[in-house]
From TrEMBL:
Transmembrane segments: none annotated. InterPro entries: aa-tRNA-synth_II/BPL/LPL, Ala-tRNA-lgiase_IIc, Ala-tRNA-ligase_IIc_anticod-bd, Ala-tRNA-synth_IIc_core, Ala-tRNA-synth_IIc_N, Ala-tRNA_ligase. SUPFAM superfamilies: Class II aaRS and biotin synthetases, Putative anticodon-binding domain of alanyl-tRNA synthetase (AlaRS). It is an enzyme of class 6 (ligase). GO terms for cellular component: cytosol. This is alanine--tRNA ligase. The keyword Cytoplasm does not apply. It comes from Micromonospora krabiensis. One of its GO terms (molecular function) is alanine-tRNA ligase activity. Belongs to the class-II aminoacyl-tRNA synthetase family.
Length: 390
C-alpha cells in the first residue's frame, strides 16, 4: 500500500463510523502556544480535550504532520524521524477506550491485513494512586492479542500539567523469525499505534483529578505503518523516502546511518521550510538551522566538496506532494542552498580563528562568548571545529 492508500483506508474507516475529517494544522504553532512545533495530532485539540465543544462534533479523524525535537538523537535508528505523519482519531467525551481498541484491531486486521499473530499490546498496569487499566486488559484478552503490563511507560501526559491518562500501545512484529518475547524484551516489536484514554487532569500542584470529559486519542505513525505493510527493515525503505534514498545514495554513497540521517534531515527541512520556517539564531529557525548544518557536517566529513545544489527537483516535489504542501512560502531548495553557502562561509572564516585559540589551551566561557559575539561562531560550531582539528 502507498502512503496515500494507507491514509485513505484509515480516514475512510473512521468516517464510516461517524468521524468527521479535521483539517490539518501547520507545524508552526500560533504565538500563544508555549510549544514551538506541532508534536502530535492531538496537540491542536488541547482545548477541546479539556471540555470546549468542538464545532465538528465528538468524533474526529485526521492526518497531521508532526515534528519532535526530542527524537532528534534517535534519528538514524530504524523507526524514528524528525518530521513524520500521524494518523489520528478522537472521541471527545463520546465512546470509551475498549471501543477504540476494538476498532483499532478491526482496522489493522481487515483494512491493513495485519494478522493477530504479529500483534502485541502494552497496557498500563497501575502506578501510584491509579490502578491497572482493566478495560484495555479485558478487551485485548477477548480479542486474543497478547498483552504486556507496564507502569509509567503506559501513562500518557503532554507535560507536567493538563489532561493525562493510561494508554495502550500496539506493536507489530518486524523480525524475520516468528515473534518472540514482548515489546520491552525484544526491539523487533515496533510500536505503530497508541490509544490514549484521557480521563485525568493534573493541576499546577501536581494533584490528579478527574477530567471533565473522558476522551480517547489515538495516533498511528504513517511511515511506520508503511514499513509494516512492505515488510521493510526501516521506515527509510518505504515510498515516503524512495526518491531521497535513491538520490542521496547515487550522489554520495554514504554508510547506512548517515544515509538515514541525511534523508530524514532533508525531508524534514523541506516540510519545515514549506510551513514558513527559515534558518535563524533562535526558536524554530534555530531548530531548522541545526538540522541543515548537522546534515552538511555529516556529508562534509567524508568529502567537503559535496553540495546540495547537486540535488534534483524530484525528491522535493515528492515530499511536497506527500505532505499535501505547496510552495506558498517559497522554494525549499533555495533556502537550503542559501543556508549551505552561509555555513560554508562561516566555517572558512572560523577555522583559522578557532585553531589560534586552540593552541592556547582549553577554551573558557569568555572565549566562547568572544568567538560568538565577534566572529559569529556559535558554541556548537566552535566545538565541531575543535574536534575537527584534534
Ligand atoms: P516511540 O516509543 O517509538 O518513541 P512514542 O510512544 O513516543 O513512540 P506516540 O507519542 O505514542 O509515540 O505517537 C503515536 C505514534 O506516532 C507512535 O505509535 C508511532 O507510530 C508514531 N511516531 C512517534 N514518534 C515517531 C517518530 N519520531 N518517527 C516516526 N513515527 C513516530
Ligand atoms: Mg517517542
Ligand atoms: Mg512508545
Ligand atoms: Mg506511544
Amino acid at each position: 500500500m502507498t502512503p496515500e492508500q494507507i491514509t485513505g483506508t484509515f480516514v475512510d474507516f473512521y468516517r464510516e463510523r461517524g468521524h468527521l475529517l479535521l483539517p490539518e494544522s501547520s507545524l508552526v504553532r500560533p504565538p500563544d502556544d508555549p510549544v514551538l512545533f506541532t508534536t502530535s495530532g492531538m496537540h491542536p485539540l488541547t482545548p477541546y480535550l479539556e471540555g470546549r465543544p468542538h464545532p465538528l462534533g465528538r468524533r474526529l479523524v485526521n492526518v497531521q504532520r508532526c515534528l519532535r525535537t526530542t527524537d532528534l538523537d534517535e534519528v538514524g535508528d530504524s523507526t524514528h524521524l524528525t518530521v513524520f505523519q500521524m494518523l489520528g482519531s478522537w472521541s471527545l467525551g463520546d465512546y470509551d477506550g475498549p471501543r477504540s481498541l476494538r476498532w483499532g484491531y478491526e482496522l489493522l486486521r481487515d483494512g491493513f491485513g495485519v494478522e493477530r499473530d504479529r500483534l502485541h499490546a502494552t497496557v498500563f498496569g497501575g502506578d501510584g494512586p491509579v490502578g491497572p487499566d482493566t478495560g484495555s486488559l479485558e478487551t485485548w484478552g477477548e480479542l486474543g492479542v497478547p498483552v504486556e503490563l507496564t507502569g509509567h511507560e503506559n501513562w500518557w501526559s503532554n507535560g507536567p500539567t493538563g489532561p493525562c491518562g493510561p494508554d495502550s500501545e500496539i506493536f507489530v512484529w518486524t523480525g524475520d523469525t516468528p515473534p518472540t518475547g514482548t515489546p520491552t524484551t525484544d526491539r523487533r516489536w515496533m510500536e505503530v499505534w497508541n490509544h490514549v484514554q484521557m480521563r485525568y487532569h493534573r493541576d499546577g500542584d501536581g494533584r490528579l483529578g478527574p477530567l471533565r470529559q473522558h476522551n480517547v486519542d489515538t495516533g498511528m505513525g504513517l511511515e511506520r505503518m508503511e514499513m509494516v505493510l512492505r515488510g521493510g527493515r526501516s521506515v527509510f525503505e518505504g515510498e515516503s523516502f524512495r526518491p531521497w534514498v535513491r538520490t542521496v545514495t547515487t550522489l554520495w554513497q554514504p554508510d547506512e546511518e548517515t544515509l538515514r540521517r541525511v534523508c530524514d534531515h532533508l525531508r524534514s527541512s523541506v516540510v519545515m521550510i514549506s510551513d514558513g520556517v527559515r534558518p535563524s539564531t533562535t526558536g524554530r529557525g534555530y531548530v531548522l538551522r541545526r538540522l541543515i548544518r548537522r546534515m552538511l557536517t555529516q556529508l562534509w566529513r567524508d568529502d567537503p566538496s559535496r553540495t546540495l545544489s547537486d540535488l534534483p527537483g524530484e525528491p522535493f516535489r515528492h515530499t511536497l506532494d506527500g505532505f499535501r504542501l505547496g510552495t506558498g512560502f517559497g522554494d525549499p531548495r533555495d533556502v537550503l542552498l542559501d543556508e549551505e553557502r552561509r555555513f560554508r562561509g562561516l566555517l572558512r572564516r572560523g577555522r583559522p580563528v578557532v585553531s589560534r585559540y586552540r593552541s592556547r589551551g582549553p577554551l573558557t566561557d569568555e572565549d566562547y562568548r568572544y568567538l560568538h559575539d565577534t566572529h559569529g561562531l556559535p558554541r556548537d560550531l566552535v566545538d565541531g571545529l575543535l574536534t575537527e582539528a584534534a
